[in-house]
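Review form for a predicted model. The reviewer records the input and the model, then writes brief findings.
Reviewer: anonymous (R2)
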Amino acid sequence: MEKLSKKDLLLVSLMLFSMFFGAGNLIFPPLLGQLSGTNLVLSLGGFMLSAVGLPILAVATVAKANGLQSVAGRVGKTFALVFTILIYLSIGPFLGIPRAGSLAFEMGIKPFLPDSLNASAMPLLAYTLCYFALAFWLSLKPSKLMDRLGKVLTPCILILIASIFVGSILKPIGAFSAPTSYYSGNPVLKGFLDGYMTMDAIAALNFGIVIAFTLKERGVNSEKGLISNTIKSGVIAGLVLTVIYIVLSYLGASAQGTLGSVENGAQSLTNIVLYLFGSKGIIILSILFSLACLSTSVGLITSCSKYFTTIIPKVSYKTWVIVLCLSSMLFANVGLNKILKFSIPVLNIIYPMAIVLILLPFAHNLFKGYRQVYQLCMLFTSVFSLLSGLEGFGLNFSFLKVIPLASEGLVWVIPSIVGAVLGFVFGLIKDKNSRTECENEGF
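Model under review:
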């Protein structure tokens, strides 16, 4: 089994971290801290489960199965193709990449523009044109991602976050206050659901293809080597994310009493840097958001382009990069608020299916690998997550309210368990019938 040097392993891990760490990772932890207050430890624990634990498990799952489509293939070939394409499109040009580009403008450029320009659509168009031109250039050569992201962008992001944290130590913001009503009950579960919004568990299902390519460029070609080094990179990237989340959520919690309530995490972080550094803090924040969003966009563009090249080989990697950059730029100009409004119900539909697909392989031997478990568990999960997501678009399914955990935003959990149990029973029956047939035929 090939082994990476410690330096290369660290750089691959930092590259993976930079691809994970985008807009959502910056804005949601401070908001969680500010809203949860003295319940921070509990809510942050739930947040870590979905925003760090699930992405690490996803990286491990994809690495062991040799790709997302192989994992989804345990449900069925048609499902594997449709679900994989859906994941890549949602995390890529339809949601994840446009959100990053739009938020980079909102936090990095808009605060410095006069009101007359902010009322126009031209600044966002001009910015996204430059933003995606740079993302296009960075994505053209995946072999250089480790150097560009791991050696340059990630250290800059970490230095900027560290400077904000050091500033909070030198100039303490305040003490933790009582949690808001949202986090006063079931803070662990609320934190877990808020972790959805980072989109990292879904992104992790995509990034495996980029990590594998990077490792092969470094001479790791054996299956065991690829699996081992991918999992190690995922764990290290997860540890870095954990430290960053602790810092950002602490900053948000300490700001609650002193800086007042906020509507979103971006506003919370803005208030914090203004308090610590004055007007100069906006410059720090704008650079931080721009770098974080850009690194995530590049990772997503690269992974999506690599995948679509495998299913339509006649279209070159470069062409896919162009298509994704142009489409993402167009969607980014819809505006951040509309993108965020659309993203919540979409994530409520996709995330449960992704969670099931991540967790089932770890219980594969427990249920004897029966395909029926994968199929019925996914069927039940997808139906109820779809109905729950459609409610976010204004539809109403009153019968969902009688299902346990529905009020907590986890309407899919019990149906998922029921589907898995039924799948196991059907698998046992089919297995028994197959053995009986073999015995009757004299085998």
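Findings: The chain has a mean pLDDT of 85.
Further findings: The CA atoms of residues 370 and 427 lie 6 Å apart.
Recommendation: see findings above.
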